[in-house]
Design a protein that fits this description.
The chain is of the alpha/beta class. The protein has 15 helices and 17 strands. Strands 1, 2, 3, 4, 5, 6, 7, 8, 9, 10 and 11 form an 11-stranded mixed β-sheet that branches. Strands 14-15-16-17 form a 4-stranded antiparallel β-sheet, covered by helices on one side. A two-stranded antiparallel sheet has the order 12-13. Strand 12 and strand 13 (474-475) form a beta hairpin. Helix 5 (211-229) runs parallel beside helix 7 (304-337).
């Protein structure tokens, strides 16, 4: 019987774990002269909880009601009200680097994800080749070797394009990084009704429903199957919907949920959210709202047609976010129904970066009618097309993305947006921690500094699992994140994560003990994909890194970067710039690469190769 169990475990995929343990029996010439031995199966600590990581895509700090926003997110509200709100949590400013850092507990350049894993946007340097090394193991690999079942659904985003066919290789697919089951897409973005869908190690045909519904169904089925087979075994679920990344698409019964509710525009929206955040204690009482970005028009200067169009863009986005919250509620409610919710540790990161500026000034109904994709169009022509096709926004026929004015509004109380690694608007996102058995200060607010690389060590410490020296026989590089468990029961504990760099496409920053220095590289870019489809090239723009203007902020007194202290404290600025240079050498940030460098001498065969957007 014992031998049969062992053989079953080998067939179930545990052989890689057992192979690391040297044989401890005795092999003699005969059975009588020998001593049998079987390695103990991997087992988690006693009473280890289930763990769910939820990562929402492209949501600004001020969008959700949970952190003072106007858009209702009742599930997130409930989790936060019965858990903790971390208000000083950070991402990398763009999707793939955030996901790679999150999954590994290490800085994104350290795991080779300084940009994307896409062929045309990766580069042949250690910090940029888009291939996470085996020496930088993921949370799924660690938990799997400690007796957890591991599942992932939704957006993965860190598999190299050249590996993404059904021929593999699969070592950089989710299955090669510790996930026993995966259902979702491998790229950075996909159509929500015609996704480039993958299940385990093969592409599959989508069934026509919204992708968020499909991945939620699959997540629930994984949980049910596992609990039926092994009721006491914990699971790890990585739930990462494509929402709310563009294209903004939502089921027909949801898209008019907020019709007419944002007619007051983005300026009034910012003021309402800012007041809510102060009331909730999410932001300091001394805080002031930054001025509107000079590239964004005042709402009261827009034409009636523009107001109607732009309000519609945000109505659909708001419905998209609430719909995403609803899909999360299905997982939460199911856990409650099967008596697992109280034994589940849930982390919710609301946004893998700040709100997206990629809708540019006029917004997008369809990509081919955007001047960002078609240089034969003027902004006026694009807006005219958008107004004439307003009813398509949010439907399967559209590739909708809202104008950048709404990105600043959704990022309240911060300046700037996604891609801006120099700014809190690009990197400052909400974190919720929920665990009924272990969170005493329910509804508590935590202001300690945190970063996505902290979630892996936080999870391991809370469960009681040591960080492994090896995974599948490969020696592991050390973690770079800092556990946040110290803050769970102590709201006044000083921050332990005291230094952190940021770098995306030339924009860069360094944080140290409440001080932050940052430089925008292309400060006026609204879209990193600003190239003509017809020519497959970008307009030439050059900017010397040494000419970038560095700014300095004391976030302890000015958390949303309103007062630039660079001229007042040049010594502090010089000190922080040197720290950044040290980190650049330590973590593979060199050579500096921005989006222009990537495109020099290269062509783009199709947008589909980047986004796997709308397969036939």
């Amino acid at each position: 019987m014992k031998r049969s169990i062992f053989i079953f475990m080998l067939l179930a995929g545990s052989i890689a774990t057992y192979a690391q343990e040297p044989y401890q029996g005795k092999v003699g010439r005969t059975f009588a002269e020998s001593r049998e031995w079987w390695p103990a199966p991997p087992a988690p600590p006693k009473n280890a909880p289930n763990v769910i990581w939820i990562l929402i895509d492209d949501v600004g700090f001020g969008a959700s009601s949970t952190f003072g926003g106007i858009i209702p997110t009742p599930t997130f509200d409930s989790l936060a009200n019965n858990g903790l709100r971390f208000t000083n949590f950070h991402t990398t400013a763009i999707c793939a680097p955030t996901r790679a850092a999150l999954l590994t507990g290490r800085n994104h350049h350290s795991v080779h994800m300084g940009g994307f894993a896409h062929d045309f946007s990766s580069a042949g340097f250690p910090g940029y080749d888009g291939r996470i090394p085996a020496s930088k193991g993921t949370i799924a690999e660690i938990l799997k070797e400690d007796g957890y079942n591991t599942f992932a659904v939704g957006k993965y985003g860190v598999t190299p394009d050249e590996d993404s066919t059904d021929a593999g290789p699969f070592d950089r697919w989710p299955s090669g990084k510790g996930f026993e089951h995966f259902f979702g897409f491998l790229g950075s973005e996909t159509d929500q009704y015609r996704p480039a869908l993958v299940e385990d190690n093969a592409h599959v045909k989508p069934d026509g429903r919204h992708l968020s519904e499909q991945i939620t169904d699959k997540a629930i089925s994984y949980i049910d199957r596992q609990k039926k087979a092994a009721p006491d075994k914990p699971f790890f679920l990585y739930y990462a919907p494509g929402a709310t990344h563009a294209p903004h698409q939502v089921p027909a019964e949801w898209k008019d949920l907020y019709k007419g509710q944002f007619d007051y525009g983005w300026d009034a929206f910012r003021e309402k959210v800012f007041a809510n955040q102060k009331k909730l204690g999410i932001i300091p009482a001394y805080a002031k709202l930054p001025e509107r970005n000079p590239n964004i028009a005042a709402w009261n200067t827009l034409t009636p047609g523009q107001k109607k169009l732009y309000a519609r863009f945000f109505e659909v986005y708001a419905a998209y976010l609430t719909y995403t919250d609803y899909q999360v509620s299905r997982v939460v409610n199911h856990l409650k129904e099967i008596n697992q919710l109280d034994n589940t540790l849930i982390f919710v990161v609301i946004g893998d970066n700040g709100a997206s500026k990629e809708g540019s000034q006029e917004g997008v109904v369809e990509y081919k009618y955007s001047p960002r994709r078609n240089k034969t169009l003027t902004r006026a022509q694009a807006e005219k097309y958008n107004e004439e096709h307003l009813e398509e926004i949010g439907t399967p026929a559209s590739d909708a993305n809202y104008p950048v004015g709404w990105a600043q509004a959704a990022n309240t109380p911060f300046k700037y947006w996604k891609q801006d690694a120099n700014s809190e608007g690009g990197t400052h996102n909400p974190l919720i921690v929920f665990y009924p058995k272990g969170i005493k200060d329910k509804g508590g607010i935590r202001n300690q500094y945190g970063h996505v690389i902290d979630l892996l060590p936080t999870t391991l410490e809370f469960i009681g699992i040591p960080f492994p020296e090896t995974i599948k026989g490969i020696k592991q590089d050390s973690l770079q994140g800092t556990s946040l468990v110290y803050a769970f029961d102590n709201a006044s504990a000083p921050s332990r994560h005291t230094q952190q760099y940021y770098y995306i496409f030339g924009s860069r920053a360094i944080y140290k003990d409440g001080w932050k220095a940052g430089a925008a590289h292309h400060p006026d870019y609204f879209d990193l994909n600003d190239f003509a489809d017809s020519a497959n090239t970008r307009p030439a723009v050059t900017r010397d890194y040494d000419k970038d203007d560095w700014e300095l902020y004391n976030l302890n007194e000015d958390f949303n970067e309103r007062v630039n202290l660079a001229k007042k404290y040049p010594e502090k600025l010089a000190e922080l710039k040197q720290l950044f240079e040290d980190d650049a050498k330590k973590y593979n940030i060199y050579p500096f690469i921005d989006w222009e460098d990537v495109f020099k001498g290269r062509t783009i065969n199709s947008r589909k190769s980047l986004l796997l957007l709308r397969p036939k």
